[in-house]
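Quick one:
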Amino acid sequence: MIDRKLTGEPPKTILPKGTIDTQMHMYVPGFPSVEGGPGLPPAPLPTPDMYRTAMEWLGVDRVVITQGNAHQKDNACLLACLAEMGELARGVAAIDGQTSEAEVERLDAAGIVGARIMDLPGGAVGLSELEAVDGICANAGWMTAVQFDGTALPELESRLAALQSRWVLDHHGKIFGGVTDEHIAVIKRLIDKGNVWFKFAGCYEATLTSGPDYPDIAKVAREIAAYAPERIVWGTNWPHNLAKKTEDYPDDAALLDTVMGWLPDEKAMQLALVYNPQSLYGFPDWG
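Output:
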């Protein structure tokens, strides 16, 4: 059991109307975990109702639900969550090169707007499928979320630069080996290609320092946000599945305030929270 904080002292940062959380997972009962994944998060199951409470607390209006590793390439739970959340939600599924055009069309009709590459332990679809998934996403008009150990960014630059879909470098690049000037230069060159976004989410997952400020992650986040504010998106990373005990569970309001401090100004915040994700994930204009 874990006690997830869903409400409390509100964040000091007032989020703009129409804010989109682009990185989170949710679950509904009746969908057991699939072999190969890490299992379901600790009880109680993080449900749509729980997330709605957190949305109200933080000031989030819309959401992108990402397929959790627990369900691998079985997107049924994700589709059930999208149905629960309605028009306020879009989804990012797990597919591979064998996924049929008919299945892509079925997912698209249910609110799926992208697919994820998760080349880390427990991930359903790794970099071996990168080009195949990218091709499917490009043909479908979807985006691709790409997550891997970003220490290897320089070695992977040519493959990433050749991607045809609109894609997101997830979780601040997740550079487990530590951010260097070379990593930042690679990210900038990829952004200059015109089809790349950079996601602020889960800063605690790759930091070599610690909270509450995460100075190593803050360094790359600040530099990329100043370089290309029109390419930043943000996510809560709720329900923080790496936290297995209550005492390890982050305060979402405090974390939000920290991360928003990495954006250069209010205009950049409006872009990162509303206009950039609205365009990337296919939401209508707010209001």
